[in-house]
Amino acid sequence: xxxxxxxxxxxxxxxxxxxxxxxxxxxxxxxxxxxxxxxxxxxxxxxxxxxxxxxxxxxxxxxxxxxxxxxxxxxxxxxxxxxxxxxxxxxxxxxxxxxxxxxxxxxxxxxxxxxxxxxxxxxxxxxxxxxxxxxxxxxxxxxxxxxxxxxxxxxxxxxxxxxxxxx
Length: 167
Ligand SMILES: [Zn+2]
Fold this sequence. Notes:
By secondary structure, this protein is mainly alpha-helical. It has one domain (10-158). The protein contains six helices and two strands. The protein has helices at 10-23, 33-45, 54-62, 101-107, 112-119, 129-145; strands at residues 78-81, 96-99. A two-stranded antiparallel ribbon has the order 1-2. Helix 1 (10-23) crosses helix 2. The longest helix is centred in the C-terminal third of the chain and has 17 residues, at 129-145. The protein is globular and about 45 Å long. The model has no long low-confidence stretch (mean pLDDT 89). It binds zinc ion (ZN). The site of zinc ion has 8 residues, from helix 4.
């Protein structure tokens, strides 16, 4: 979870996890804590921006046959959505990754965070980087369109569940 002084708002949750994703190396991040907070503050102030989808698309293109979720090399990778289509996400390459048959069968159209943390019982700190990057960017766009970036949000798990437009 983000430290207590980070507001529990949609935008802050997205920026905090994005900062963590960009700063933290694949293994452990405890030593980078100050850098994560600094990156969060720069995103928040508008001094830095979340990158376009190119970073993830490039990674996907350069690792054919590797499951974006479990990292295994598979003989017959299939394409799947990171963010469930029921959220109202625009169709497109930005929401598609290659995955192994096992992960696709297990995840289905479930929410990526819920599937990883609740169904698989895997730690939040071990969320796979490429799907998480796409997820955060898509969440940001959805909330921006719906004018809900300042809505209260308890954490990552709630991010897309509360992306419906304000009435
Ligand atoms: Zn897999």
